[in-house]
Amino acid sequence: MRLLVTGGAGFMGSAFVRQAVARGYKVCVVDLLTYAGDTCRLEEVKERIAFYRTDIRDREGLEEVFRRERPQVLVHFAAESHVDRSILEPRAFLQTNVEGTLNLLELARRYPLQRIINVSTDEVYGELGEEGRFTEDSPLRPNSPYAVSKAAQDMLGRAYFRTYGLPVITVRPCNNYGPWQYPEKFIPVIIVRALRDEPVPLYGNGQNVREWLYVADCAEALLEVLEKGKEGETYNISSGIEKRNIEVARAVLDLLGKPHSLIKFVKDRPGHDFRYALDSRKIKKELGWKARTSFEEGLKQTVEWYQKNLEWVERKLRDLRKYWEKVYQGDP
To answer: How many CB atoms lie within 10 A of CB 23?
Structure first.
């Protein structure tokens, strides 16, 4: 079976591509290679995939890929994904996450597909208090420009299933972590700063709660959805492992043998959601999937990977600095 994977050089997308190739799928990757994309993540499978450096906002470029590759399945990861960036540059998120998705769905009407896996996020649900979990039927109440753009992407897929009969399946994963994650994300920031004995910033009082899923487990779940999922359905993908941000920071510092005094509380992010938590009984019951990696083991593997790959991290941080210099026009 031929898969077209958008954003396949990204953190989550590349984990999926590596596993899909290992299962024997023929994979074509579309990735613009923005700041967060990197073909290094695909090094071990580069001889076994086709790669196109194409922007999903470029409909003509996308159509050329569809015409050449004739994929049978589309797995759509490509997205602007960082909440802080969305607060500064909301238009870029709408253009990529909404218009790009629209291009793909329109092409799917012309080039029939057996499956379309639309990768959303738990952030589309909004926030929870100390209790409760979101089910697939919970209302969408996104609170950041990023979450709004992903909710729109999510609903576009639903609309194209209902209106045009496209075989769309929606997945909403919780926070992923693991090797190869871009160093602007929460856990890599803690690791890198701690390794440098620099202050580790935590928004507000550090009490915000997230549910953490090891990226390899998420990729495995997506393959189960691809192979067994029901068209038109939505599946939450989660681990049940909830941690307060300050707990995560302390756990990383403990693994590195660094003092908790490195933690520095900073002004909270605008509109910062307090807690996300997903009810993933549906995917467990219907598809037989559940997360296998404990947080302790996943975090240990993640920290060890970053310690061994500091050269890659430094290169990505240089790219990150260039990005912010461009945003602030040399006046950060």
So the answer is: 12
3-state percent helix, strand, coil for the chain, nearest multiple of 5: 50, 15, 35
Q: What is the pLDDT of residues 244-267, one digit of tens each?
A: 999 999 999 999 999 999 999 999
Q: Taking Cα atoms as reference points, which of 318, 327, 203 lies closest to residue 269?
A: 203
- Per the annotation, the verdict on 43 as an active-site residue is no
List the catalytic residue out of 25, 52, 125, 146: 146
User: Contact, 206 vs 246, CB < 8 A?
Assistant: yes
User: Is 194:123 a contact under the CB 8 Å cutoff?
Assistant: no
Where do the structural domains in the chain lie, given as residue ranges? 2-176+211-240+274-292
The reply to whether 125 belongs to the active site is: no
Structure tokens at 176: 């992923």
323 noted as active-site residue = no
Closest among 37, 44, 229 to 52, alpha carbons compared: 37
Spell out the residues 6+ positions from residue 82 whose beta carbon is closer than 8 angstroms to its own. 36, 146, 184, 185
Catalytic residue among 122, 154, 211, 273: 122
How many CB atoms neighbour CB 65 within 10 A? 21
What DSSP designation does 122 have? G
**CATH number assigned to the domain covering 2-176+211-240+274-292:** 3.40.50.720
Greatest C-alpha distance within the chain: 58
Question: Which residue among 80, 123, 154, 211 is the active-site one?
Answer: 123
Q: What is the pLDDT of residues 114-145, one digit of tens each?
A: 999 999 999 999 999 999 999 999 999 999 99
